[in-house]
Design brief:
891 residues; alpha/beta; six-stranded mixed sheet; 30 helices; 26 strands; 18% strand; elongated; binds adenosine-5'-diphosphate
Length: 891
């Protein structure tokens, strides 16, 4: 038996959209069939039923009311699926045979536009990538940021980023490594690549770790000619130089393919994509994925703890646009001193002017997400509420311009000029709309009287009739003597008069002759009259026309807003910048940050620095501020020793964060700071999540260290925590030793370095290096307790106090005692870093006799007795202690 015509239509559409879950509209429902139904029923918790489709008997089926799609689509998208929305595209009443259906939109992670399901303060990036070689860019000026891979013929990446919710589009050609950095900064939800493309391993790691959707597209879409056509027709240009793509064949190819993919998915022209940014990654400090992760700039190490990120501390933004820009700034620190200072200057002015800060907050508060509103306008989704919202936001934007008028920083001057263009635009829009606006755009109720003469005339024509109906109730109540008679309306009969049985009994007049009974309800009767019908039909005919005219007028308004798009996007961008500067100033005031002195040169001088996140999250913590002093001629490398828990990692991280904050133009958590701009912050701290690639912790540690040693420059800041921890002591020590020597001595690698280690044996090495210094985190030993003072002091720590910390953590006494014995034995064979012979001896004799000779026992016994506090013991504890000692040393 052949499939029913409906199922034939379904199969046809399904075939044209491979890889999609098809939401198939049938009347008021979306239905899913076969495998789609099985998958969706599990994810959405829908009941799976079956339906006889005529061909292969029973087909799995599930469905839901169409209005629930808003809830169900995001759930499917979050689960990694691509959803094709198939609508009925003709009026079923007018259809001959099967209703015509078509795909109106395809929704996937990187192409979702419905704001209710997106984080307002996070861009929703979609990325496209193709591998490229430097030859591709030959003859062009596109050789930026190709790094060490920039030699002819080596591997590069051409990539583009788009955010369909706002119309952001950017393209770049860079080294693979820079692509990896940019990918992790923006963390797209989806990546588009040509079929069979080899995605670089680093990107694959990020894709797996963050569940990024990978979409393969036919290779021809990435052809240069094809892409060029797409860009020409979208941007309505005749040459690529207008877009900055002249001579950039790879970027052209990847951007064209990305735009085409988006237009195919959205079935729309996406006119809100008005411009293309050519990214120059050389403008920003390089932050690789592990540094981004380790410093917890935007995303926390523990997935749910956003409060541990720098962004959460600095984010006082009032608008969604400001929130997104702030994230972008935090992950893209600048390296131009001039640009940093210009932001800094603006922040400084606001910090000094709390009145302006309050005024800015007030004026920013009611500004909606204009960028995403433009996205709705550009993709033809905006309703009257959106346009009125845009109108109100524009009016507010000009109020922000008024606040900026009183400020002097040059940045504000430029922003104010842009915002002034909003003046008048808001009112121009708002005068067209009613106060209370409907969600739908085809049922009238949108346009304010006075906005459109033709509409006014049409409304005037039926005004009398409407009034007649409106007053009908009062008239009939009087006429029939039924004070509670009602005139109602429903879609089936239109207007009717309702008289209940109780009212009927009390009526002073009989039911008039012209009353035609239309419906009997439980309580009474509903009537219509010929006069009512006539009036109603005149009104409803006129209303059809009024609604059509309102719709037409609304579309014209929407088109007008769309034609302002480039200007509106600039205004939105200016609002986002003002908001981010406002946010920096608020944070500076709240946490007592200072304005750093940023200079073009090398050196970091921080007095009284503190960790911005720890202090913000634990306001009651007595945080001990610390200094940093690094310079090319003084100490270039600080070797920091101290027990676990003393605060080494905190010190390293806070230094990285302070430098980064200085370079995003923000004030910094310190008493004072002089920061020579760094080209890159490297971190090798803590555990990593690259285990997904089957790499051991130690391997990951070494890969990251290798990356540092290959790429660090004298302008970099390197933060290394516990290098070599993942392997045996002597391996680890040797590796750490050699890294210190390289970072200190190799001219091309002499980065400013903070090197925290528990190998206190390294302190001897540092003594002999001219530009390295020993530092320790102060601790105080009180009996068998350690007090962490968290203060960084000059000098070396003579012990790693590991056993103390273990004891404080509650390791059993017997284990601690045994560990002390072993340690003493090991320390007997001390390593003198300057004595190569001794070093070799130890390495050659790793298996040591751990049975202590008698004099060692005496030493240990002495130590234990020294730590005893008999004055604090009960008699029973004293006795127990004596027995312990006898058992340990009495044999
Ligand atoms: P380490 O790296 O030496 O093992 P951490 O940096 O992880 O130590 O710090 C251990 C604990 O000490 C953390 O809980 C941290 O909050 C606290 N701490 C670190 N530095 C300071 C400081 N300067 N003042 C107060 N507490 C600190």
């Amino acid at each position: 038996m052949a499939a029913t015509p409906l199922m034939q239509q379904y199969y046809e559409i399904k075939k044209q959209n491979p890889g999609c879950i098809l939401f198939f509209r049938m009347g008021d429902f979306f239905e899913l069939f076969e495998d789609d139904a099985v998958i969706a029923s599990k994810i959405l918790g829908l009941t799976l039923t079956s339906r006889n489709n005529g061909a292969s008997g029973a087909t799995p089926l599930c469905g839901f009311p169409h209005h629930a799609a808003d809830r169900y689509v995001p759930k499917m998208v979050a689960a990694g699926y691509r959803i094709a929305i198939c609508e009925q595209v003709e009026d079923p009443k007018l259809a001959k045979g099967i209703v015509k259906r078509d795909i109106v939109e395809i929704i996937s992670a990187g192409t979702a536009m419905d704001e209710t399901n997106l984080n307002a303060k996070e861009a929703n990036y979609l990325c496209a990538y193709i591998p490229a070689t430097v030859e591709t860019a030959a003859g062009s000026n596109a050789r930026q940021n190709l790094g060490p891979a920039g030699e002819s013929g080596s591997c590069c990446a051409a990539f583009a980023f788009a955010d369909v919710t706002t119309g952001y589009l950017a393209a770049c050609l860079s080294s693979e490594q820079s692509f990896e950095c940019e990918f992790s900064r923006r963390m797209p939800k989806e990546i588009v690549v040509p079929e069979g493309c080899n995605i670089p391993a680093g990107i694959m790691d990020l894709i797996k770790a963050e569940n990024v959707l990978v979409t393969e597209l036919p290779t021809f879409l990435f052809g240069e000619e094809q892409a060029r056509e797409v860009l020409f027709s979208h941007f309505k240009v005749e040459a690529l130089d207008g877009l900055g793509l002249d001579g950039r064949t790879s970027e052209t190819a990847v951007t064209g393919a990305l735009l085409q993919y988006l237009m195919d998915q959205k079935k729309s022209e996406l006119s809100h994509f008005t411009s293309l940014e050519i990214l120059n990654l050389d403008d920003y400090m390089t932050l690789d994925p592990s540094t981004l992760r380790n410093l917890e700039l935007v995303r926390p190490l523990n997935a749910d703890d956003y409060s541990s990120t720098l962004c959460s501390v600095l984010d006082f933004t009032v608008t969604a646009m400001g929130g997104r820009t702030l994230k972008d700034w935090v992950s893209h620190p600048l390296i131009s001193v001039e640009k940093i200072r210009s932001r800094e200057e603006a922040v400084a002015e606001l910090v000094q002017n709390p009145v302006a800060l309050d005024e800015l907050k007030d004026s920013l508060t009611s500004i909606l997400d204009m960028e995403r509103l433009m996205g709705r306008v550009g993709s033809g989704r905006a309703n009257a509420r959106d346009l009125a919202g845009m109108g109100r936001s524009l009016s507010q934007a000009s109020k922000v311009a008024d606040v900026l008028e009183g400020l002097r920083a040059p940045v504000f001057e430029g922003l104010r000029e842009t915002l002034l263009r909003a003046k008048g635009r808001g009112e121009e829009l708002l005068q067209n709309f009613n106060e209370d606006l409907p969600l739908t755009i085809r049922e009238g109720g949108m346009i304010r009287p006075g906005a459109n003469a033709e509409l006014d005339a049409m409304n005037a024509d039926i005004k009398e009739r409407r009034e007649w109906i409106a007053s009908l109730e009062v008239r009939e109540r009087e006429r029939l003597g039924i004070p509670s008679l009602k005139v109602g309306y429903n879609r089936v009969f239109g207007y009717y008069i309702e008289i209940t049985k109780a009212q009927m009994a009390k009526a002073t007049q009989p039911i008039p002759e012209e009353y035609i009974r239309k419906q009997t309800t439980v309580n009474g009767e509903r009537y219509i009259t010929p006069e009512m019908k006539e009036c109603e039909s005149i009104i409803s005919n006129a209303e059809v026309n009024i609604h059509a005219l309102e719709y037409k007028f609304f579309c014209e308004l929407r088109e007008r807003v769309n034609s302002w798009r480039a200007e509106l996007q600039e205004i939105a961008d200016a609002i986002a910048r003002v908001d981010s500067l406002y946010s920096f100033a608020r944070a500076a005031r709240k946490y007592n940050y200072v304005c750093p002195e940023v200079f073009d040169g090398t050196g970091i001088e921080i007095r009284g620095g503190f960790h911005p996140v720890i202090v913000a999250v634990n306001p009651d913590l007595d945080f001990i501020p610390n200094d940093v002093s690094l310079s090319p001629d003084g100490t270039r490398l600080m070797l920091i020793t101290g027990p676990n828990m003393a605060g080494k990692s905190t010190y390293l991280r806070q230094t990285g964060l302070i430098v980064l904050m200085a370079q995003i133009g923000c004030f910094v958590p310190a008493e004072s700071a002089r920061i020579g701009v760094v080209d890159r912050i490297f971190t090798r701290v803590g555990a990593s999540d690259r285990l997904s690639r089957g790499l051991s912790t130690f391997m990951v540690e070494m890969i990251e260290t290798a990356n540092i040693l290959r790429n660090a420059t004298p302008h970099s800041l390197v933060l290394l925590d516990e290098i070599g921890r993942g392997t045996s002591t002597f391996d680890g020590l040797s590796i750490a030793w050699s890294i210190v020597e390289t970072l200190h001595g190799e001219p091309a690698r002499m980065a400013l370095t903070l090197f925290a280690t528990h190998y206190h044996e390294l302190t001897g090495l540092v003594d002999s290096l001219e530009h390295a210094g020993n530092f320790q985190v102060a601790v105080q030993e009180k009996g068998d307790k350690l007090i962490f003072l968290h203060k960084i002091l000059a000098g070396a720590c003579d012990s790693s106090y590991g056993i103390h910390v273990a004891e404080m953590a509650g390791l059993p006494n017997t284990v601690v005692r045994r560990a002390r014995k072993i340690l003493l034995r090991l320390e007997k064979q001390q390593i003198d870093p300057s004595d190569e012979a001794a070093h070799k001896k130890i390495v050659a004799k790793p298996q040591m006799d751990l049975f202590a000779p008698p004099d060692e026992n005496t030493q240990l016994l002495k130590d234990e007795i020294r730590r005893l506090k008999p004055e604090e013991m009960t008699p029973m504890q004293a006795l127990q202690c004596l027995m312990d000692l006898k058992q340990a040393y009495g044999k």
